[in-house]
Amino acid sequence: MIIPHPLLGPRDASEFVYLGDASLIDRPAPEAGIDAFHDYVYQRDNPAGAHRELWFHEHGDRSWLVVTRNTLTHEILAVELAKDVARRRGRGR
Amino acid sequence: MTYSAWRIFTEGLTGNRGWKRAWRDPEPRSDYEVVIVGAGGHGLASAFCLAKEFGITNVAVLEKGWLGSGNIGRNTTIIRSNYLLPGNEPFYEFSLKLWERLEEDTNYNSMVSQRGIINLFHNDAGRDAARRRGNAMMLAGADAVLLDREGVRAQYPFLDFDNARFPIRGGLYQPRAGTARHDAVAWGYARGADRHGVDIVQNCEVTGFRIEAGRCTGVETTRGTIGAKKVAVCVAGSSSRVMAMAGLRLPIESHVLQAFVSEGLKPVIPGVITYGAGHFYISQSDKGGLVFGGDIDGYNSYAQRGNLPMVEDVCEGGMALMPMIGRAKLLRMWGGVMDMSMDGSPIIDKTPVDGLYFNGGWCYGGFKATPASGWCTAHLLATGAPHPTAAAYRLDRFRSGRVIDETGAGAQPNRH
Ligand SMILES: Cc1cc2nc3c(=O)[nH]c(=O)nc-3n(C[C@H](O)[C@H](O)[C@H](O)COP(=O)(O)OP(=O)(O)OC[C@H]3O[C@@H](n4cnc5c(N)ncnc54)[C@H](O)[C@@H]3O)c2cc1C
Q: Best exposed site among A5, B21, B204, B361 by fewest CB in 10 Å?
């Protein structure tokens, strides 16, 4: 798989470390309660098809990316800096 | 028709004209007592045990493709009970004991071969961990032998014992572990279940659940609605997709695992070797092919095929362990979709929907679990209570903190 890095251009996926579903950006507030944290830590949609996921460019510029990838074909549909995604969602960084 | 040596002899004398189909190809009926979704190893073993051990024969197994088309026909066939944790080890040892009598139970040659497995270690910490694991195994009634370097060398003189990074210091040996012919396990259970009256319906995809007032009363399929008092879902890599149709989210991610077979070679590897530090394991099939694999690719996938970096990684591991395989040609490689759970351990449990049961989260190790998984799923369906060896495999254990995390990796499925 080749991931088109928004800053560095096409990079081999083996330069990256995979974390999982991009919903991990939306960590619940500390007072959200046990159910919210249980769902955040353990439950996943795990779709067959388009999946938004976090990749870390460990052997590169060490930025986190949100990659939208088709889990049935491995085709990469969109790539954004996770920083931009988090800011859009009202996070400070 | 019971299979026996006598039967082969008489058929041989009469032109082999008397053999019948191993199982029927029935039309689905409108109602069953139990419907099992997925004719992989676990679904078929569950149906077989329901009928044989618990006397419940009004059962259908519904399969979207052909039986054995999933992971049961894609794995590298290793059976073993060398787990560490109390939630796991008694279950896997129960499974190994059932493997030892599988062929008598099903009247089918599944080629169970107790050729032994060695997990290699490379330093003092590894030896301590192996000793502890071996003790945990023996406490659960399993067999374990701690081998030193010379003990490993006696079985596998051709390994690279003085590898600069991971010199081989010894291994944890389980003599009763081994391999079984994966397809023949599915076929044996299918034929056995069919002989007890279970309907195995192929080309019948479950497309929804009939849920009335919080109770599951049947399934929608591509061949019509089928009613059932109880429905058990055993669909491995498709777990999240199928359970989503009942409105449930799972602590599971689907990942691809690849496997490899070389051209046929003369017998050289007598048992199974796992080289955890090098992310590599290997055995040799009875046809002579070297059967080997390594880690999952590491990203969510439903593709049943992996990528080249993992091919390179596995082959590097093999070359580091046994340089002699460098000239063997790779014959085939393929992938299967793993239901990777959040703690690396499986789930056999009721669900919040009455009458709906779930079996899954088998990760890359569910083949060895097949006999016990079938037994414990049947036990849960028939008695309403978990089998003692599977009591820890609860769906809600992540909420209560009772996770069973063999690797200690946390809620990170691609690290288990
Ligand atoms: C490459 C590889 C190597 C492995 N090596 C080992 C090993 O050495 N040892 C070991 O113990 N384990 C191993 N495993 C793991 C093991 O194969 C699996 O954990 C186990 O087979 C899963 O259970 P199953 O047999 O029931 O799954 P499957 O055979 O996948 O059965 C699930 C069935 O459900 C069906 N299904 C899905 N959705 C639907 C639907 N909507 N309606 C109807 N049917 C449906 C599928 O078609 C499939 O037939 C390996 C797996 C792979 C891929």
A: B21
Give me the number of domains chain B comprises. Answer: 2
Query: Can you give the CATH number for the domain in which A60 is found?
Result: 3.30.2270.10
Pocket of ligand 1 (CB under 6 A): B 37-43, 62-65, 69-72, 74-78, 205-206, 234-238, 242, 257, 259, 293, 336, 362, 364-368
What's the angle, vertex CA B346, arms to CA B51 and CA B73, rounded to 5?
Answer: 65
Q: Over 80: is that where the pLDDT of A92 sits? A: no
Number of domains chain A is built from: 1
Atom of ligand 1 lying closest to residue B67 CA:
49
The tens digit of pLDDT for each residue in B235-267 reads: 999 999 999 999 999 999 999 999 999 999 999
Residue finishing a domain among B341, B369, B393: B341
Banded model confidence at residue A91, pLDDT cuts 50, 70, 90: confident
Distance B106 CA to ligand 1 centre (A): 20
CA-based nearest residue to B219, from B200, B206, B229, B230: B206
Looking at the domain assignment, is residue B9 inside a domain? Answer: no
Q: Which residue of A has its CA nearest to B251?
A: A43
Each residue's pLDDT tens digit, B30-71: 999 999 999 999 999 999 999 999 999 999 999 999 999 999
Q: Against a cut of 0.95, is the pTM above it? A: yes
Cβ separation A12–B309 shorter than 8 A: yes
At B285, list the tokens: 């099939």
Interchain CB distance below 8 Å, A14 and B309: yes
Would you call A48 and B307 a contact, using CB atoms and an 8 Å cutoff?
A: no
Confidence at A93, pLDDT banded by 50, 70, 90: low
